[in-house]
Amino acid sequence: MSMIVKEIKDIRRINLHLHTRASDGALSPQQLVKQAKSLGLDLISLTDHDTSDAYGELPADLTPLRILPGMEISSLHQGHDVHILAYGCDFENKALKDLTAMYLIGRRERAKKMIELLAGLGIKIKLEDVVAKAGRGELIVRPHIAQVLVQKGYVSSKNEAFDKYIGNFKPAYVPKPERTVPDVISVIHQAGGFAVIAHPGKLEEPAFVEEFIGYGIDGLEVWHPDHYQYQVDDFIEIAQNNGLYMTAGSDFHGENKDALLSDAVPASELVLASVRQLYEEYRCRNL
Fold it and tell me: Is 222 helix (H, G, I), strand (E, B) or coil?
């Protein structure tokens, strides 16, 4: 009888934006799932950057925790970074695999170029040291380079590494390979998934949201720790007016400062209802 009770427990405690060691998070997928279960979360999504590797490392028994498959995919709009949360995709889809393979190879080439630029500034680090910081799939992101710079004593913090050397348009910055927003949305849809704009409050231009709606996005991450309350309210209104899903996530990476962000995020009844609908729609598509 207890099994049935577990199954019908309503989705109330959620966090749909979590990073693991498969990209630039500090915890392994197993550790993160264990933490989510111990905190009593009902629904989570592991959303590593441009990789689904975390899903190959999940424990067999997840109950009563539910997991909505996810990934945070990089894209570019008018020269600016845009992150798109892809939920419920078939990770074996060819278009999606081609996209993630392109990013994997492109990021490695980018890391090599950044290491060369750092060497020109008198900062000597090795590619293998950076790769050692990356996950099993060896997906290299800038925080991995920052970690090595801290470790070697060139900077005192990851923030300093970004501010001085590897942040956007700093002396050792190299742009990563990018696909456009419509391209990425199209790939997500080909893979049977939902395209949700991550932390829209951090977009370069608020007007971009209207453009993305025109491209056929499925939702907005309305609650994010970097959003002000007025932004949350605005995004809820935009989502309701355009028939979009609303999600909420903490963007947890596992640094000491954001330890609390592995817990449930504050989601209103309205947002919870939308998340339940999204999860049901995902389950219907995959029956």
Answer: strand
**What pLDDT does residue 1 have?**
41
Block residue for tokens 């990476």:
253
Helix (H, G, I), strand (E, B) or coil at 143: helix
185 — phi, psi (to 5°)? Answer: -60, -45
Name the pTM for this structure: 0.89
Tokens of residue 164, six digits: 């001085």
Reported CATH class of domain 99-166: mainly alpha
- Nearest-angstrom CA–CA distance, 42 and 67: 8
Of 86, 81, 94, which Cα lies nearest the Cα of 50?
A: 86
Three-class secondary structure of residue 220 per DSSP: strand
Cα–Cα distance, 31 to 59 (Å, whole number): 10
Q: Is 129 exposed, middle or buried (0-12, 13-18, 19+ CB in 10 A)?
A: middle
**Which tens digit of pLDDT belongs to each residue from 53-110?**
999 999 888 888 999 999 999 999 998 999 999 999 999 999 999 999 999 999 999 9
Q: What are phi and psi of 130, to 5 degrees?
A: -70, -45
CATH code for the domain defined by 2-98+177-285:
3.20.20.140
Nearest partner of 178 among 107, 113, 95, judged by Cα: 107
Radius of gyration (Cα) for the chain, nearest Å? 19
194 near 218, Cβ under 8 Å? Answer: yes
Can you give the residue ranges of every domain in the chain?
Answer: 2-98+177-285, 99-166
